[in-house]
Amino acid sequence: MATAWWAKGLIFENCACTLVCPGHMHFSQLCTHERCKGYWALRFDEGVFGNVELKGLRAVVVFDTPQRMIDGQWIQSVTVDETATPDQRDALDQMLSGRAGGPWEKLAGFVGTRLPTEYRAIEMADEGAVKRVAIAGRLKAMITQIRGRDKSQPVVFDNVFNQIHAPRQVLALGDTEYRDETIVISNTGSHGLYSMFDWKVLGA
After folding, report:
1. How many Å apart are CA 9 and CA 146, to the nearest integer?
2. Start-end of H helices in 46-133
3. pLDDT confidence band for 204 (50 / 70 / 90)
4. pLDDT tens digit string along 130-165?
């Protein structure tokens, strides 16, 4: 029986592409470089997986994909904050691996190599126009929304179809330094954006 679950929160990202990442708009588009390397940072503000509370959890999904993302064979690494309980760890592992259905099930079809899930301290800061994330011994990253004509308002995409992001997304530029045994990322002033995700799986 599939587990019913839902989750809401903040998602932000940075990859190596220039603004805007073609693969973000559609996986059939050619990304800026031969490999597209980046991350999705997730802050769970609300949610339940079966009877497991998700509020307050944090996770980071790191990816290394071919230039045309639809070709598949992505390398993916997932880190969950070490404060998560065993049940919460299992819930996020099922969700982010795609085994629990929902938007991540679609993305899982493109992953060729999924590295073992890690549990490390994740620090995340939401400073309005600036979002930051750090993983002890792994990641230091930030994105900053770009300025528009009206400097009091963000520059946005609206009515965008994306599996994991909301239809309304705020454009940003980001910097990332990341290293594990398989994936190395060094991005400066490259594609970034954020939105408030809203995922739901009804179960069976």
Report:
1. 21
2. 86-97, 103-108
3. low
4. 999 999 899 999 999 999 999 999 999 999 999 999
Smallest CA-to-CA distance from 64 within 155, 181, 158, 169 is with 181
Return the residue matching tokens 């190599």.
Answer: 113
Tell me if 54 sits within 8 A of 7, measured CB to CB: yes
What is the rounded CA–CA span in Å between residue 181 and residue 138? Answer: 10
Measured CA to CA, the distance from residue 173 to residue 13 in angstroms comes to 9
What is residue 2's predicted lDDT score, i.e. its pLDDT?
80
Q: Where are the alpha helices (DSSP H) in the chain?
A: 22-25, 86-97, 103-108
Tens of pLDDT along 22-73?
999 999 999 999 999 999 999 999 999 999 999 999 999 999 999 999 999 9
Q: 145-148 — which CB contacts under 8 Å span 24+ positions?
A: 145/170, 145/171, 145/172, 145/194, 146/19, 146/171, 146/172, 146/173
* Tokens 């503000």, located at residue: 45
| Residues contacting 127, CB < 8 A, separation 6+ | none
